[in-house]
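::Encoded backbone::
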Amino acid sequence: MAIKEGIRTGGRSARVQTSIYAAVRDLLQEQDRSAISVPVIAARAGVTPSTIYRRWGDLTALLADAAVERLRPDEPVDCGNLRDDLRNWTEVYLDEMSSEPGREMMRDVVASSATLCSGKCLNIVRDQFQIMIDRARERGERTPSADELIDAVVAPMIYRILYAETPPSLERMHQLLDRCLG
């Protein structure tokens, strides 16, 4: 088998996607959401609207995908034990998702018909939990699965952020977490 040298990792496609995400982020900070359209984003990103339509199909799918991209977190903080790791993560996640930009990002994902975005969100959270779980197991701690944590803590948190008048309290989230940890 021949070895291919000089293969670009990303290339023009990655640069275009990055410029479109940056345009969406900047426009959302500068303007009312209702003023944003595919042609406006395309002009800011330096691409044609057809590039966006070909890649995402419509504005809703683009906003959802851009929201998911903004949700990519850093590696979770290692506090020395699983309970503290998860409490810290829950506090940060609740704060970010219950903020107005966080709620807008979640609404974009929910409004999108692109199931890929929802799957990405779930996988991002699952990966975050798995990092903490793996560290805890290395320390000899008993752990729930990532999916148990998602079902017990994240799902009720997201539901209340999206559909309740007020987001859940941090105290309530800690109760749910403690219940899951046993």
